[in-house]
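I am writing to request your help with a piece of structural work I have in hand. I am sending you one protein, given as its amino acid sequence and as whole-number tokens for its backbone shapes. Kindly check, if you would, that the fold set down in the tokens agrees with what the sequence suggests. You will find the record immediately after this paragraph:
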Amino acid sequence: MTSGGETSKADGQARGRPPGATGGVVSSPVSGPVSGPVSGKSPLDDVMIAMDVVDTLRHDRNLVERELNDDARRQDLIDRLREIYRGQGIEVPDRILEEGVKALEEDRFAYKPPDPEALSTKIARAYVTRWNWGRYVLGALAAIVAFFAINYVFYERPRQVQVQAERQAVIELPSRLQALAASVASEANDPLIGARAESLAKSGTNAAATGDLATAQMAEAELKEILAKLRSVYQIRIVNRPGEVSGLWRIPDANPDTYNFYLVVEAIGADGDPLAQKITNEETGKTEQVSQWAVRVDRSVLSAVKADKDDDGIIQNNIVGRKERGRLVPDWRIATQGGAITRWK
């Protein structure tokens, strides 16, 4: 066991203190320049010196453990500390030395690593490593924002527009249906057409009231079609152009022993241009919008047209019907059998 003087010298040299310094101004590694006794120092200086005492004790752990394990030798440790500081020219009151020993026992002024499982530690670690995981979070957020933006632009917004349009249609449809029915009745020269229009308007209004928008819109479309037919004016003319047939005959699949005879015709408006018509093909049962169709006629009618064309290549009596305003169907100048086809080539 080394003597107190040797311990003081070794401690001082190990911690960078000038050994054997006496009098004058002496530098303490913690408290800075100190001159003479420290009894008149401020509380902050007392704390700094107490920290220095703890630091001194930690540098000689063997000494501390030996002395502190025996309560009777605690005072000897304090005396030895006093001699260490006195050897450096520093007078430290007993209360400061007591405070330093007590602080060492309580582990004050000692670094304690934070609890790795504590919430504050986890938050701090997350903040320090934010650049590592932040880009992934930002990428995920960007993907989420892009998803909701695309969903809104291409799905949600169109759906909202459609819903709003349907609500508006439900509100406006009844008045539109009534206006169309009134127009049809004023255009038609047959009271039955007006009655049919009124029935359509009523059924469409009832459908709109129950939320059946599709049925209401179908009623509106049919009223518009009726009104357009009533207002249209055209002539029905036999097609007579090079490379196109003016008439034909066919053997129906349903009755192979029979011949059906047809004239190929077109509707010509007041401006001289063809007008497309909705025609139901009797061979397929389908209704098509066509500019030319073949109307079924008696064989004698087809024979007469053939003879007219064979005469000079021109069909003189090529107007076979006329549609007047206020009527739904044309008035035919030839005998027809009520059927028609839309395809024959």
Q: What stands out?
A: Confidence is low (pLDDT under 50) at residues 1-42. The first helix runs from residue 4 to 14. The first strand starts at residue 26 and ends at 28. The two ends are 127 Å apart (CA to CA).
